[in-house]
Write the structure tokens for this entry.
Amino acid sequence: MRKSWKAVMALLAFTSVMASAAPTQPSPCIGLVLGGGGARGAAHIGVIQVLEREHIPVCKVAGTSMGSIVGGLYASGYTADEMATVIGALDWKDLFSDDPDRAEEPMRRKDADYRYLLNFEVGYKNGHIVTPAGVVQGQKLLLLLRRLLVSTWDVHDFNDLPVPFRAVATDIVVGKPVVFASGDLPLAIRSSMSVPGAFAPTNVDGKLLVDGGLMDNVPIDVVREMGADRLIVVDVGSPLADEAQLSNPVALLNQMVSALMAEKTDRQLKALSDQDILIKPALGKLGAGEFNRANEAIAIGRAAAEAALPRLRALTATPEAWQAYVAGHRQRDFDPKLVAFIDVDAKQTHTATFAGRQLQPEVGKPFDAKDVEARIGTIYGQGSYQQVDYHLVERDGDHGIRLTPVDKSWGPIYGKMGFQLDDDFNGRSEYLISAEITATNLNQSGGEWRNTLWSGRIGGIRSEFYQPFGEGSTVYVMPTAVVRNEDVPVFDGKGEQELAEYRIRRRNAGVEIGWTPASYWRISTSLVRGRDTGDLRVGSPSTFPNGTSEYSALGLGLDWDSLDNAQFPTRGSHVNFDYISFRTFLGGKVSGDVARLVADWVPDWGLSTGRYHLLLGMRASSALDNTNFFESQTFLGGFLNLSGYGERSLYGTQSALGRAVLYRRTGNLDALFSTPIFIGMSLEAGNTWRSKNDVRLDSLIYAGSIFAGVQSPLGPVFLGVGHAAGGHTAVYLTFGSLLRPGL
């Protein structure tokens, strides 16, 4: 027995010596380098599809910009097909818009859409005019990354991912690359693709970070330092523009930056060895912003990898090694535990209590990323936040959400401009320039002071102080004051000849109390005391004397607004009803009741994949007891308000208008960055009357128009021609909403 034991020991020792003496042949560590290129980076997915099909394992991965998104998802356990499904299902237009769906915005923000203001905001801070650091703050993009990478919520070292990963950004202050090897994975990826001017930079650990492509667009050196033996490098950078395309300063500036990036990339590519494989998908002129062509880019990437198969197949793993790789390359298990608490980081906001209260209903429920995103969208939709982010956290064995709202860095005083023009090419044109200045977060309850200034056919200022009853309250009080001068033409009874023109000087002050229980409706009541003075500018004083009207009024208002867009709506409705009772109290000298209704509806019928839309609208107003003073008058005429007539050429104490507007969007609906162009037509019927006794169906005026509309940087621009019964024809050039709201 002892001899047998000795023989076994001797055999084991011999085997051990022979094994240690034999040369080992470990598989090479294959590093994957994914370059930046915006939408062109979707080609990375096609390359990875081929790598997976050919059983080529990746042991290190690094990416820049779009390459960091693909690389981060792959490193976290996504397969190429899963990534293709995610990319193909994204609504890129919505992703590149920070605001939630308009129907979910608070009523106060929706009101601003009807004041002809441009969708560009500047701020005033510390004595300086400040603008946003990017067209897009990246709010929805960061939330999307958090949802896609939720399984990595407790991973802080990127070496602990299924595949070790690095994301590359640029510290724009010192002009050096920043390589993320640890930290917050979604934030690292978001930082890597902060294209200057488009996406706002991120601030991480005191560093202001922008797109990594500025310093290291194809991070070969990063993967090499991670310890990879052989590299597969995918370069999806955009080619330089040719001379014909360099026709403006913006194009020249973009070319300069692209040339510097290309020079750095060329230096990186020259460092590749014969053992490395470079893949450059033939993306041609596929633009960096054409995310709607992601599937096309994926196919091009797949074709480029297949062209490199003779070299790639040398990296194919054995069946056993591939199975082991697949077993380890999967998303980590994620258990959506009950949300036990909500923490709010209040260091960068004045409205932490409001934000926390909005997320509080999630406590006691299993974590659901989409539900959390929806509630954060409601918070962000208030309009005073630059970013609202969240993290999953663990405390004393419980799981919760840490909410981080960040107030706009260019506030707390904001300004917007607006422009309106009406020209009937018949000698009458009017313009209006607006400016709106809003001071926010004036107290703990979220008080706002808004001032609107006008110049042109209307001159003056409206000032209002919006004060909720507590932070985030649905009840508010709003004192207002108006000083306004307005040009008002007086036409003959047929709306054909202008007889006079008044300058109406309006002065009033009042208070409104309202309740907004949901984002799409509001009820309010108001008290107003004012004076209107009419000064004749054109016309005979004996026929058109000057006049003054002193009034006091109580008002009741009901508002409903679920339109998805206030300029070219595609679905939803907007209803506004006002009942105003003028009485002789507080010095008022007129008495009467006026009711006004404005209603617009765009049914969501899905006509022709969203190209065609039908707007059904009506306007009605009545001085119920025929009281005749300026506040009881209603005006019609102009584009889509009995087209064919001049602007405000029909007036009376009674009015009605019904219209149907059909419009079609032309061009590519999938294009992410495009100028929407619409063509349309309208059918209209209505009139104004001096008293209720004059109102008859047989006195309705029938009209219609054809038009073209463009969503320009200055807002919607319409060129149209209208015709009304009785031979009234007019050509219109007008800036403003398709709804034609009043001011």
